[in-house]
Amino acid sequence: MEGKIDMAARRQVTNKLRNQYRKASKADKGKILDRVVETTGMGRSTARRMLRGPALPDPAEQVDGRTLRTRRFSDDARTLLEHVWALMGMPCGKYLVVMVDLWLPLLAEAGDLDTPFATDETTAELKAMSAATVDWYLKPARDRMRIKGISTTTPAPLLRNSIAIRTCTDEAPDTPGVIEADTVAHCGPTLIGEFARTLTMTDIVTGWTENCSIRNNASKWILHGIEQLQDWFPFAMTTFDSDCGSEFINHEVAGWLQDRDIAQTRSRPYQKNDQAHVESKNNHVVRKHAFYWRYDTADELELLDRLWRLVSLRLNFFTPTKKAVGYTA
Questions:
Q1: pLDDT recorded at residue 272
Q2: Which residues lie closer than 8 Å to 166 by C-beta, 6 or more apart?
Q3: Is the pLDDT confidence value at 153 over 70?
Q4: Cβ proximity of 212 and 229 under 8 Å
C-alpha cells in the first residue's frame, strides 16, 4: 500500500503543476521542477518527463486492463497429486504421468482414495497434468524431504588393476544381463559400530532392480547377497559391474564370478556417472523407502528384507522404465 500511496501523490503533484509548467518561462520551469523533485523524491529527469507528458490517472481510480489466466488445476487436485505421489513411492513427473492410469483404480480399490479431495473432478484434473506441471507442484514436497547421507566407499587399490573398466561412454549393451551393483550404508549419523547395508543390483538394459540387506560389508555377506539377488532376476547375469570399493574388489567375489563364467568390470574412481543406473537407485529406491536411519539389529535386518520384496513388486511390475529398449525374451 505504501508504494501505491507514493505513486498517487506523485501523480497528483505533477497533474496539478503540468499546465503551470508548460506556460512558465525557462527559469520558472526550473523552480517548478525543483519543487516537484523535493516534494515527491523523484529523479529530475523522471519529474521532467511526467510534467511534459499527458495527465496520468490516479492509481486508486485506474482500472487494470490485464486479464488474469484462470487456474487450470484446483487446490484439491494438487492435494490429490501429492497424496497419490506418496502412495506411488514418490516418482518423478515423467514416471507419474504414465503410472497414474494404472495406479488410480488400484488405489481406489484398496480404499486409499477415500478422502474428501479425491473426487471425479480432481481425478480428471490429475490425469490432465503434464510431467512438467507435476514436478512443479511437487517441488515444495521434495524440498522438505531432501536430506543427505554419508559415503562409506573405500578403494581397493591392489586387485582393481586386473579388473576391466567400464565407463559411461562405452557402448550400451543390447541384451539383459549386465548388472550394476552398489551398497548403501544404513549407519544413521555415525559410522561407529556395525550397521546394516543394502545391496542393490540393477540391469542396464531393462532397469530391473533387486535389493537385499546384509549384516555388513564383509565379503561373505556380499557374496550371500549376490547369490540371493541373481536368482530373483528373470534372466541370467553375464556381467557384474561395481565401483572400486573393497567390498566388491576382493578375491572372494572375483573367484565366485570366475567360477560361474560371469565377467567382472568396475567403474573409475570418483566417477559416479560410470554407474549412473544403480547410483540413481540408491536415492529413489533405497533412501526413499529405508530413509537415512540407522539399522543395526537382527530384527531391523529382517524387516528391511521384507520391505525389499514388496518394493521389488512395485518397482519392477508397476513402475515404467524411462529408457526402455525393444527387448523380448
A1: 83
A2: 239, 241, 265, 266, 267, 274
A3: no
A4: yes
Cell of 86: 506418496
Mode of pairing for the β-strands spanning 209-214 and 197-203 = antiparallel
Q: Are residues 304 and 181 in the same domain?
A: yes
* Residue 57 belongs to some domain of the structure: no
Amino acid at the residue 153: T
Residue that is written with C-alpha cell 529530475 in the block: 44
The Cβ of residue 18 has, within 10 Å, a number of other Cβ atoms equal to: 17
187 and 294 in a single domain? The answer is yes
pLDDT at 68: 67
- Its domain, for residue 294, covers 160-317
Give percent of the chain above pLDDT 90.
55
Q: What is the pLDDT of residue 57?
A: 72
Strand residue runs (E) in 129-221:
164-165, 178-185, 197-203, 209-214
Alpha-carbon gap, residue 118 to 129, rounded angstroms? 15
Instruction: Count up the domains in the chain and report the number.
Output: 3
Domain membership of residue 23 (yes or no) is yes
Q: Does residue 202 sit in the same domain as residue 174? A: yes
The predicted pLDDT at position 158 comes to 53
- Mean pLDDT over 220-248 rounds to 95
Task: For residue 58, tell me if it sits in a domain.
Answer: no
